[in-house]
Amino acid sequence: MTMMNFTIAEIVKACNGTLVMDKVPQDQKVSGVVLDSRKVSEGGVFVATVGERVDGHSFIPDVYGKGIALVIAEKNPEQVCEEYGFNTESWGSYLLVENCFQALKDMAEAYRLKFDIPIVGITGSAGKTSTKECVASVLSEKYNVLKTEGNFNNEVGVPLTLLSLREEHTAAVVEMGISNFGEMHRLSQMVRPSICVLTNIGQCHLENLKTRDGILQAKTEIFDFMQEDGEVVLNGDDDKLATITDVKGKKPHFFGLGQNDNEEVMAKAIISKGLWGCEAFLAKVGEDGTEEAFQVSVPLPGAHMVNNAACSATVGMIMGLTTGEIAAGIAKVSPSSGRGKLIKAGWYTLIDDCYNANPVSMMAAIDLLTHADNQKVAILGDMFELGENSNQMHADLGKYAVESGIDRVICVGKSSRFMYDSAVEHAMEGQRVTYYEDRESLEADLRIPEGLLGFEATVLIKASHGMHFEKLIQILTMEDVAH
Questions:
Q1: Where does 19-59 have alpha helices with state H?
Q2: What does the alpha-carbon distance between residue 379 and residue 362 come to, in Å, rounded to a whole number?
Q3: Sign (positive/negative) of CA torsion 300, 303, 304, 306?
Q4: Residue 482 pLDDT > 60
C-alpha cells in the first residue's frame, strides 16, 4: 500500500499532543497507523493503547526496532521505562496524549477530511456486513473502493478503516456498528458520510437502547455529520425507517420488496435457486410512476440478499452507475467469513453465520436454512445484549425454528435453555431438539463422526460472537470429522 498523505506534524496537531521526543522530521509522511505491534511497517505510527489484557506501551522498544516513525502513547517515556525496565536510547519520535483511543479518533477525523471522495456509511440492526459487501461490489464496477474489513465497525475499527484510505481510492464503504447512544454521533463525526444507508431497525442492544424507538434514535445519529449535499438510503419495508420523511431538508431514497409505495427501487419476480442464490428483477420507479426494470443474479441465498441488491442498486444509481454496471457488481458479491458463507465439508453444507446474532438476524438465518433440499440442522447459541426480555426472545426463537420446519434444532448456552424449552413444546413429530449447556459440551459430540448430525445435512451455525461458534466451524471442516 502506498504512503499516507499525512505528516507527523499533522498528526501532532490532530491529536493535540506533546512531542516529547522529536527524532524524525515532522514533514515526513507516514506509511500507516496500527494498534497491533505485529502489524507495524517501517515509517508508520504505533498507537500504544491500554487494553484489558495487554498494555501497548510494553511493545514500544519492539516497534522502534521495526522502524516505526512515531509512537503515540499516554504514558511518558520515563513512566514506561520505570514500569518495564526499558531505556530510551534507541527510541524515535514520541507523542504524548491524554488518551490513545481518543487520539486514534482525532487522527481519523483529520485524515478523512483530506479526501474529497464519496463515502457510504452503512448501519442497521442486522445485515450491515452483507449490505456493505454488496454495495462495495457494485461500486467497484466504477470506483476504486476501500471497504470495512472484518469486524472493524466500532469506535476502534472505523478510525482504522478511515486511516487505510489512500490517494488511489475514489470511494469508500464504511460499516458503522453501535451498542449505545452517542456512539453513532462520534462515528459520524469521523466518517462524514456522503450517503447514509440504514438497513433496518430490529431488536438488538436493547440492554442499552431499551426499545426499537431507542434503536432508531441511536442509529439515526449517523445523520449528524452527513455531508451537506448528502443522500439518505433507507429500507422502505421497515416500519420504523418508513417514518423518516425528511433529513436535513431532503427526501430519503427508499428501497425494498414493494411493501412501501415510496420505494424508488423495488425487487420483483424473485426466483429462488435455494442456497445458491436467486434471480430477480429490480424496478427503478421514476417520479412519474413509470418503471425501468433490469434483471440481476444474486449469488447469495435468502430474501434479505435480494433486499441488499435493491439497496446496492439505489446507492449505485445515486453514484452514477448504469444498470449494467449494477447488475455486474451484484453478480460478483461474495460473503465474508461468519456472515452466511456456504462451506462444503464432506457430508455437510455449512452455513457459517457465527459472527453475531440477534432475533432479526437469527430468523433470517433460519429462513435461509429452509431453502436446503436435505436434512436441515440449526445449531443456535445465546444472543447477548437483549435486555430484560432476553428469555422471551430466546423462547420465541425456539418456537420459530421448529415451526419453520427445521429437522434438528441444537440449542447451546445458558439463555438458550429458554429456546430449547420452547422448541420442545412446539416441536412436531419427527423433529429433534437437543440442548447443550455450553459450546465445549457440543464440541465433544461433534468430534464423533456421523454421531450427532448424521449424513447429508445442511447445518446452520449461528450465535452471538461471544459464544465463539467459529470453533464449531473449525471442527466440522476437519477432514477426520467431515469424511
A1: none
A2: 11
A3: positive
A4: no
CA distance readout (Å), 432 to 252, 310, 383, 402:
46, 37, 21, 9
Kindly list the distances between the CA atom of residue 59 and the CA atoms of 24, 44, 54, 75, 270, in Å, as whole numbers in the listed order.
19, 15, 10, 13, 54
Q: Is the Cβ–Cβ distance between 30 and 8 less than 8 Å?
A: yes
| Residue 109 within a domain | no
Buried b (16+ CB within 10 A) or exposed e, 434-448: bbbeebeebeeebee
Of residues 11, 236, 258, the one with CA closest to residue 111: 11
How many of the other CB atoms lie within 10 Å of CB of 45? 28
> Are 458 and 376 spatial neighbours (Cβ–Cβ below 8 Å)?
yes
Kindly state whether residues 224 and 305 are assigned to the same domain.
Answer: yes
Contact 309, 134 (CB under 8 A): yes
- Residue (of 98, 110, 101, 106) closest to 74 by Cα position: 98
| Cβ atoms of 357 and 461 closer than 8 Å | no
Grid coordinates representing 90 are: 534507541
Q: Is the pLDDT of residue 208 over 80?
A: no
Q: Where do the H-state alpha helices sit in 320-449?
A: 323-331, 359-369, 390-403, 416-426, 439-446
Q: Which domain holds residue 17?
A: 8-99
* pLDDT(448) > 80: no
Per the listing, cell 466451524 goes with 473
Domain final residue pick, 291, 313, 331: 331
Q: For the chain, what's the residue count?
A: 483
CA distance 444 to 272: 36
Instruction: Mark whether 277 and 226 lie in a shared domain.
Output: yes
Is there a contact between 99 and 74 (Cβ–Cβ < 8 Å)?
Answer: yes
> Do 270 and 295 form a contact (C-beta atoms < 8 A)?
no
CB distance 176 to 204 below 8 Å: no
pLDDT at residue 481 greater than cutoff 60? no
- Could you tell me the pLDDT band of residue 272, with boundaries at 50, 70 and 90? confident
Asked if residue 411 has pLDDT above 60, the reply is: yes
135's grid cell? 454495495
**How far apart are the C-alpha atoms of 95 and 206, rounded to whole Å?**
39
Q: Domain of 349: which CATH number? A: 3.90.190.20
Average pLDDT over residues 1-6: 86
As to burial, measured by CB atoms within 10 angstroms (0-12 exposed, 13-18 middle, 19+ buried), residue 293 is middle
Measured between alpha carbons, how far is 62 from 48 in angstroms, rounded to an integer? 12
Percent of the chain with pLDDT over 70: 97
Instruction: List phi, psi (to 5°) of 297.
Output: -110, 115
Whether 362 contacts 351, CB under 8 Å? no
